[in-house]
Amino acid sequence: MSVNHALLPSWLGTSQPDQTALAPIKQALAERGVNARAWRLYLDYGDALFTPLDEVWIDPASPDASVTNAVSYLKLLQACEMDVPPPLALAKSLPVWEIPDMDLSRVPPLLLRAAWKATAAAEYTGDDLTQFVDRKIVPVARWFFHSGACQTTDGNLLKAGWDSLAKRREAWVVEQRRLDQREWAMPVRWLEWDAYRFVGLTSKAALAEEGEAMYHCVGDYGDDCRTRPLRIYSVRYRASGRRVATLSVAMDRAGAWDIDQLKGVRNGEVEARVWHAVAALLGTLRQTCRTNPAEWLARMCEKASDYVLDDLASDLPF
């Protein structure tokens, strides 16, 4: 079977009339930090080595981006010290790992190596590799990058194997479920005015329910409600309980509440009568927090550093 070495040289700008003249390619890669291990991989597999990167990291119309990503991939593989390419099912899953900025250089080699060894072991037990990667590898990889574990996990845990990472993720999932149910402080939990009832949404689970019912993205605002003086209300008809709108209000540094957003179903507009009722809620919020706005500001920001409360202290007029 012939091995094609045409694409990478074209990205590097080292294309030769005789494609068997590989010395310029090796030199160009060496100048970019690609060592002998990765060079041998490219010699053995050629451009096919980059097949898993297609459509995401490789674009024939963008040679600069293609060579940057190809080199990052080669350096990642060489750091894994495996001397063969990773299982194809694993390599093809990299685009859905939610790697920050889709930058392959941000994948810790020990993470890929652990996933690599776990996938290879699964193959020997007769598992369908595509299903194994989808069920066992991708969720852990996404957790690793999404949860911030990529910034706190040391090499020893990565060396311990994929099962150790999977257990850490399971513990994180349990904790997130607990946090989803835990409520945050609300100055006014509910209010009825005119034909409407304002129901304070005090947990991630409540926000998710509201977002599903109203067909918008309020379910994503849990961290904001937990770390910022932002609070969200479901606006409903008093008589029927039917949801009319979703209101978010924010407290400024001076302790005053104001409207952040007011949206109907699918982020649609709401009738003027709702806006009048919102004005009543804002008045109640301002009255409730007026006596000690600094205390309320602190109570509503569980992670004070996220809202830079210490930096704001000298600016607060109370």
Write the layout of secondary structure elements.
Layout: H1 7-12, H2 23-31, H3 36-45, H4 63-80, H5 88-93, H6 109-124, H7 129-146, H8 149-152, H9 155-159, H10 162-181, E1 190-193, E2 196-201, H11 204-214, H12 222-227, E3 230-237, E4 243-251, E5 257-263, H13 272-289, H14 293-299, H15 309-312
Antiparallel strand pairs: 1-2, 2-3, 3-4, 4-5
Helix pairs in contact: 3-4, 4-6, 6-7, 7-10
Structure overview:
The chain is α+β, with helices and mostly antiparallel strands. The chain has 3 domains: 1-85, no CATH class; 87-181, no CATH class; 190-312, 3-Layer(aba) Sandwich (Aminopeptidase), CATH 3.40.630. Helix content is 50%, strand content 11%. The chain has helices at residues 7-12, 23-31, 36-45, 63-80, 88-93, 109-124, 129-146, 149-152, 155-159, 162-181, 204-214, 222-227, 272-289, 293-299, 309-312, and strands at 190-193, 196-201, 230-237, 243-251, 257-263. Strands 1-2-3-4-5 form a 5-stranded antiparallel beta sheet. A hairpin with a 5-residue loop joins β3 (230-237) and β4 (243-251). The protein is elongated, with a radius of gyration of 27 Å. The N and C termini lie far apart (77 Å). Mean pLDDT is 88; it is low at 304-318.
